[in-house]
Amino acid sequence: MTTLPALIVIDVQRAFDEWETAGKRRNNPDAVARIADLLKAFRTRGAPIFHIRHEGTKPNSSFLPSRSGYAVRDEAREQAGEPVIVKRVNSAFIGTDLESRLRAAGIATLVICGATTNHCVETTTRMAGNLGFDARLVRDATWTFDRVGPDGETHTAEAIHAMTLSNLNGEFARIVTAQETIAALDAPLLKKLLRRPRYNRGMRGFGFIWVLLAFAVVVLAAGIPYWRVPYDELNRGHFAVLPGALLLGFLTLVLVVAEVAPAKPTAITMLLCVPVIVCVSVAKDTARDPTSHNLWPFELVLGAISGAVIVVPAVLLGLALRWALARMTAR
Predict the structure, then answer these.
(1) How confident is the model at residue 98 (pLDDT cuts 50, 70, 90)?
(2) Which of 83, 95, 113, 130 is deepest in the core (most CB within 10 A)?
(3) Please, are residues 36 and 141 in contact by the beta-carbon 8 Å criterion?
């Protein structure tokens, strides 16, 4: 099992060079150079790499093994120990053992690059997202060619490339650059988890509603002791904050693990809840005992400390559990 992403290099073969030589126009002329950068970075860090090779099945295909176009570009050639997976359709998952290899290695995140953007790269990326992988498509490490539509209109490679990225972004994959991908390889695990963009599909868009509901529940829970317990039996109001803060931590944990809301905004919102709870509590104390307002600074400091002690560990534990669940379900 590995916590590192796997690099999927799709169809960087000489057939595309032959197409360009024959007059077909492409975009991203530096795409192969960016793929070489990715390969170097992944190899340096010992991250897994899978090379996808297309084998044509039609008699006139440029990708027949007997033709020169089948050969891979030198910049993207595999090294010892790096598997080469041969496909015969657009998707690298159909008719191959790519998925089983990824599951067996415990790989959950895929970085996808290669050619062409709107054919094999797009199809593989869509399937990766549908299969539950956290897919990242490297926008400057893939390319395509001008195409003529059914109405005879010519669509530029740039337009096709941009539309494909737009279609895939968010729904099937996160669109990144080669530089961002390489930088992320060196980022601490916690930072990667905090960046993690995938949310529970059933709850997408409702994350902050749940945060607000949690806030309301916590405020009520913290206020109950003030209404039910006589004032002289309370050792000042700050101790009544603890039940609410504990509930706050539990709800934070649930929200983060379930991916209902992003970790950072959830943690910040929950931390802000504690001083608000304290203010409500102290306001009631002040109404009963006007002299208690002198304790406000102390109460706020105590509330901030209580929130940090309870909410921050809850977020960290939630991230750890989310990471563990992602690895378990990816097997």
Answers:
(1) very high
(2) 113
(3) no
